[in-house]
Write a structure and sequence with these properties.
Blueprint (H helix, E strand, L loop, with lengths): L2 H13 L2 H13 L1 H16 L6 H15 L5 H10 L4 H15 L1 H17 L8
Helix pairs in contact: 1-3, 2-3, 4-5, 4-6, 5-7, 6-7
Length: about 130
Amino acid sequence: MTNNYENGINILKEITDENGEQMIKSVGEIFPDFLEKMISFGFGQIYARPNLDLKTREVVTITSLITQGAFEQLGFHIKAALKVGLTQEEILEIIMQCAAYSGFPKACSAVGIAGEIFKNGNYSVSKC
């Protein structure tokens, strides 16, 4: 295992819970090399970079996912954002800001996902 992989695993443990870790590991059951790249690069190199804290990185990630309409990953990152210190109100404000730039349909989908997480701590979509 590379140092980047170990860094990535450590960051994942900071931003997610056991369910999130299991979701990530399930990718490895399908495509181990993809999992290694995702953890090493995405978390071990990008999330580990200096100058932005994990809270700010989750703001950027949530914004990017909403504007792309990549809702499969949004629940994971909303939960991560809560774990690293964003409040529900801040997450809702991010969604409102995205509505102005990417449209209300995408923002409305994001509100639904966030609402489910805020209400019961979980969201049914569990893809990477």
